[in-house]
Design goal:
The structure holds 2 protein chains of 2 kinds. Chain A contains 10 helices and 10 strands. Chain A has a 10-stranded mixed β-sheet, with helices on both faces. Chain A is of the alpha/beta class. Chain A is globular, with a radius of gyration of 19 Å. By secondary structure, chain B is mainly α. The radius of gyration of chain B is 22 Å and the shape is globular. Chain B has a domain at about 60-200: Orthogonal Bundle (MetI-like fold), CATH 1.10.3720.10. The chains are: A alpha/beta, B mainly alpha.
């Protein structure tokens, strides 16, 4: 598989008011094509900074981000972002349909292609019947669906999601997680999903990157060896799921305390015999 | 509330006030405060004739031209200034200084530069209307949401598309506020600009009546000005409902279901 995304020696220092804050110390990792990678870490560890650097919205202090081998300098055309603040990332003066369509217009796609993509994307997120509504007429979960539809219709190579479900209720959140999995499996888009929720990271990801606390580096790169077919009930009650989340939880606690030796990732064999 | 009741509530107080005026002034012997009956008679004679075309419509046309000029210049400048932190810091003191100058004192200067014709009057009106539009636009452009800004950048929405779909729409509530303030200033300046060296127009006509001691006619002109204000603000409200429908809906949604 080819490396869709490569992050090499990424460092970001914020300068301001006479003191500088090192948000990212030295991050190196890569993401394969069509992978779904979750990024977790203690709060304030620079998850959003990382994502903004990858999206080309923020200039790194050192290091580089490569998207399909090209260095990212400014937002690349085949990358889409779903922001945490759904209420602020949709245009309140546009209908749902116009919101999803606007990026396609700036891509200069012909009208019938736009119609096709918008209709398909809204149907994929189960919002085929609200084309003419305004975002603020919808619930929070539905608004985030619109934002996901906008990202999907854009047909990106890479989809970045910045704690997209942090502000919705638990039930909606579970539905949206399944939606992300289904969109990912259907389209084969590469997804980098930033979250502070360990369960969510294990449930969604093929891999979970654990970031240390500031100054931030990659503390662990954990493969999630759960079956590809996941659902909220069986996956979450799988002993392996529990094992992985427990391990991740310990890792984050360690990250909060400021590093130390990481424990080896749990082997699947111990899951078969939880008594040992 | 039904439509009929709403109209009734809106019209109730004006009708009551007119009735009060009518009754209180019915036996008035004062030369300067004639009975309302006389004023209304004069109103029909004076304004529903050739004066409508010769005085009222040109005044209104100058008002709208001045307002339009100020709107274009104010929004264009406001977008530029509001988009740049450095420019804003540099220009703010100057803008506040210029804004503080009452536009009527500029009339003699405009007469020197632009003569006493239509150009001068339109310039006077727009010079007063510019400031509320400009300053409100600057504020609206400055306060646009940074997540929306990031969204535009991430999805390659740049240049004219960004201006049209993000900057102007995000600032539109403030622009409309500026326009509403400008409308009120514009009506005042429309009248004042016609009081200097003019030969036609509403302000000119009212002053002529006053100087010729045609008191009921003078009053009828004042009444007409008030009526124009009402009509213009109703028209403006229609425009606002059309442009800012999303904004009022959003505000209602944020306040929660009531």
């Amino acid at each position: 598989m080819s490396k869709t995304l490569e992050i090499r020696g990424l460092r970001k220092v914020y300068d301001g008011h006479g003191r500088s804050v090192e948000a990212l110390a030295d991050l190196t990792f890569s993401v394969e094509a069509s992978e779904l990678v979750c990024v977790v870490g203690p709060s304030g560890c620079g998850k959003t900074t990382l994502l903004r650097c990858v999206a080309g919205l923020l200039e790194p202090t050192a290091g580089e981000v490569l998207l399909q081998g090209d260095r990212v300098a400014g937002p690349p055309p085949d990358l889409a972002v779903v922001f945490q603040e759904y209420g602020r990332s949709l245009f309140p003066w546009m209908t749902v349909r116009a919101n999803v369509e606007l990026p396609l217009r700036s891509k200069r796609l012909p009208r019938d292609r736009r119609d096709q993509l918008v209709g398909g994307a809204l149907a994929a997120v189960d919002l085929g019947d609200v084309h003419g509504a305004y975002p603020w007429q919808l619930s929070g979960g539905m608004q985030q669906r619109v934002a996901i539809a906008r990202a999907v219709a854009y047909e990106p190579q890479v989809l970045l999601m910045d704690e997209p479900f942090a502000a919705v209720d638990a039930q909606t959140r579970a539905e949206l997680e399944d939606l992300v999995r289904s969109v990912w499996r259907r389209t084969g888009v590469t997804i980098v999903f930033v979250t502070h929720d360990i369960d969510e990271a294990v449930y969604l990801g093929q891999r979970v990157l654990v970031l240390s606390s500031s100054p931030t580096h990659v503390q662990e790169d954990l493969a999630v060896d759960l079956p590809a077919e996941r659902d909220q009930l069986t996956t979450r009650s799988d002993p392996r799921f529990t094992q992985l989340r427990t391990h991740l939880y310990a890792q984050i606690q360690r990250a909060k305390r400021g590093g130390g030796q990481p424990s080896p990732p749990p082997s699947p064999e111990t899951a078969a015999a939880p008594g040992t | 509330m039904t439509a009929a009741r709403r109209v009734l509530v809106a019209v109730g107080l004006p009708v009551a006030l007119l009735a009060l005026w009518w009754v209180a002034s019915a036996d008035s012997q004062s030369f300067y405060l004639p009975p309302l009956r006389q004023i209304l008679e004069a109103f029909a004679d004076v304004w529903l004739g050739p004066r409508l075309v010769d005085d009222v419509l040109p005044s209104l046309a100058r008002l709208l031209a001045g307002l339009a000029l100020a709107a274009v210049a104010g929004v264009a400048l406001g977008v530029v200034v509001g988009g740049s932190l450095r420019l804003r810091a540099a220009l703010e003191p100057v803008l506040e200084f210029l804004r503080a100058i009452p536009p009527p004192v500029l009339v003699p200067i405009f007469i020197l530069v632009a003569g006493i014709g239509t150009t001068m009057k339109v310039l006077v009106i727009s010079s007063g209307c510019l400031w509320p539009i400009l300053l409100n636009t600057v504020e609206g452009v400055r306060a646009r949401d940074e997540v929306l800004e990031d969204t535009c950048r991430a999805y390659g929405i740049r240049g004219p598309a960004r201006l049209r779909h993000l900057v102007l729409r995000a600032a539109s509530p403030q622009i409309v506020t500026g326009l509403r303030q400008a409308l009120a200033i514009g009506i005042i300046l429309m009248v004042i600009s016609e009081m200097f060296a003019a030969s036609s127009g509403l302000g000119f006509t009212i002053i002529q009546f006053q100087r010729g001691f045609a008191i009921p006619e003078m009053w009828s002109g004042i009444l007409l000005l008030g009526l124009l204000g009402v009509v213009l603000s109703l028209g403006f409200r229609g425009l606002e409902r059309w442009v800012l429908g999303w904004y009022h809906g959003l505000r209602r949604a944020q306040r929660g279901p009531s």
